[in-house]
Specification:
Layout lengths: L1 E4 L23 H7 L10 E3 L1 H7 L3 E6 L11 H20 L11 H7 L3 E5 L3 H13 L2 E6 L5 H9 L3 E4 L4 H15 L1 E2 L12 H18 L5 E5 L4 H14 L4 E7 L4 H8 L22 H10 L2 E5 L1 H13 L10 H8 L2 H7 L6 E6 L5
Parallel strand pairs: 3-11, 4-5, 4-7, 5-6, 8-9, 8-11, 9-10
Antiparallel strand pairs: 1-10, 2-3
Helix pairs in contact: 3-4, 3-5, 3-8, 8-9, 9-11, 12-13
């Protein structure tokens, strides 16, 4: 485990650095209104882990449990489905020539005019499920591009909810390139990352994640520390930005990445987006070598520190959490893994004490 203080905290990446940028809206009310059209949308629990906080020598531990979000097993259920809903609304309004309200989105009248909408994404896991589920709810076509490394069981799950699965390449980056190419001719690309030339609708996906943070802010007082795991940085940036707006500069925000894929930390060190270099990590949903530019922009400004953890440390934490009845994956528990790995030196560096209240997110269930 390694800790890096963020030298860009408060200032962020310079405006002169060439990168994709966007304004993330942190008001969750419009997202909630739209997601209300999904019959399985509901708030997820905020767990108070008294026993675990005692074991870790901190005052309190609160865990936002996303393992059952909308029946899809992760926080990503929020983003993809919301982006599909927004795409359906925009298409319906253009074709009907009038405003279309959230409660109409699943009506036969709307489905009749948007049925030829085709949404496309690449996925290594949960984002594809969210896009596919949103497409099923709103009656449009979805094609999900998977690399050869994604298990066939996941492909079958996607097919089971009506998506077309396209195998492309051996790694995620290759499936992403194939999805982007297909979207130029066949449909709308809904990615959860951003890069030059592509910000929307990925920015809408990130705004979907603000619901998670809004639920937290309504359920608890500001903690002393927030540990957020990150891949391309979508969830971490949306939660960090929303909670900064709600709670101000008080909480210390710690971003956790695999040491094999620290693309956000590397970007902060370089002062702009770079491609991380490293082997494959067992934190599969976090094993991202290229950051979302918008996420990097926000986290460079809002995060106080970046932490990298090893696969061994993530596995050890998952085993301990399972013993405590909190089953997750190395990706889903990475924020907790960083907290659980802290020794005396790391606790001192992060300002952790017996009085600390720590918030983290269990972002997915056991895989």
């Amino acid at each position: 485990m390694k800790i890096y203080d963020n030298p860009l905290r408060g200032s962020g990446i310079g405006a002169d650095v060439p990168m994709a940028r966007g304004v993330l809206r942190t008001v969750a009310r419009p997202v909630r209104t739209m997601l209300a059209a999904c019959p399985v949308h509901a708030e997820t629990p905020l767990l108070d882990q008294t026993d675990l906080s005692g074991m870790l020598g901190i005052g309190a531990l609160r865990i936002k449990d996303e393992r059952q979000r909308m029946g899809l097993g992760s926080f990503k259920a929020l983003g993809g489905a919301y982006a599909v809903a927004c795409a359906v609304k925009a298409r319906a309004e253009a074709l009907l020539g009038r405003a279309v309200y959230a409660e109409e989105l699943t009506s036969d009248n709307v489905k009749a005019v948007v049925g030829n909408l085709h949404v496309i994404c690449a996925s290594a896991g949960n984002h594809g499920l969210s896009v596919a589920a949103g497409a099923r709810v709103f009656g449009v076509k979805a094609s999900i591009y998977l690399s050869g490394s994604v298990p066939e069981a996941f492909a079958e799950r996607l097919r089971g909810i009506g998506a077309t699965v396209v195998r492309a390449g051996e790694i995620y980056e290759e499936s992403m390139a194939a999805a982007e190419a297909a979207s130029r001719d066949e449909g709308m690309l809904i990615s959860d990352s951003t890069w030059p030339g592509y910000v929307d609708p990925a920015l809408v996906v990130l705004e979907g994640y603000t619901v998670l943070a809004a639920e937290i802010a309504e359920a608890m007082d500001p903690p002393s520390h927030i540990f957020l795991q990150a891949g391309v940085g979508g969830m971490a940036s949306a939660v960090a930005a929303t909670l900064r707006d709600a709670w101000g500069a008080g909480p210390k925000i710690v971003v956790v990445e695999p040491d094999a894929a620290a693309c956000l930390l590397d970007g902060v060190k370089a002062g702009g987006p770079v491609t991380a270099v490293g082997p494959v990590s067992n934190m599969g949903r976090l094993d991202c070598k290229d950051p979302s530019h918008v996420a990097l922009e926000y986290l460079a400004r809002e995060a106080d520190a970046f932490v990298t953890i090893s696969d061994v440390e993530a596995d050890a934490a998952v085993a301990r959490l399972a013993e405590a009845g909190l089953e997750s994956s190395p990706s889903g528990a990475a924020g907790l893994a960083a907290l659980m790995t802290c020794g005396e030196a790391e606790r001192a560096a992060l300002g952790l004490s017996a009085e600390s209240c720590v918030l983290t997110v269990m972002s997915e269930g056991a895989v």
